[in-house]
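The authors assume throughout that readers already know how a fold can be written as discrete tokens. A single example would do more here than another paragraph of explanation. An entry of this sort, consisting of the sequence and the corresponding backbone structure tokens, reads as follows:
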Amino acid sequence: MRNSSFMGRFQDWLSDWSEGKTRISLVLVLAVLMGLLLGMVGYTIIKQIFYDLFPRPPIIDYHDPVQAAELLKTDPVGAYWVIAVSWFLGTIAGAYVAARVAKMGQFAGWLAGVLLAAFYLCDLFFQPNTLLIFVLCPVLVGLAAWAGSWLGMYVNVRKQIRAEQRSAPVIVPEVSDTVVE
């Protein structure tokens, strides 16, 4: 009955550890970290470009509710959509890269998406935002993680199919000299 639980199967998997499992685990960790880094950098660049175009007041205390409420009134409506779009694009890029590098299906992309969602939510708490952003962005990050990891897996599978087709021997049927009437 020990093997029917998750912990039992996990302990069996660990007791049968091999060099191949070490390699797979390291590739997975590095792929997720690579996707996480790309998603964070993409989000930061898009957000910084927007704040360069529409600068915020230089001296503001984000922890003061009065100043934060004033900032919410003065920000353009598109400011919050840029945050959502930058989350979406950063997560798609991160999940795609994680899935492509890991070559293990969608799992690495999903892990990168979960870690990016945690990063984005931490970032939300340090700046004033509307309630819509708190509700909308986790949904967008989930969709982006799914889409990016699916796209990465799809590209990996297509690349593998093309490689198998190129390496397969070409069989040319023989043509006989007789004419069939």
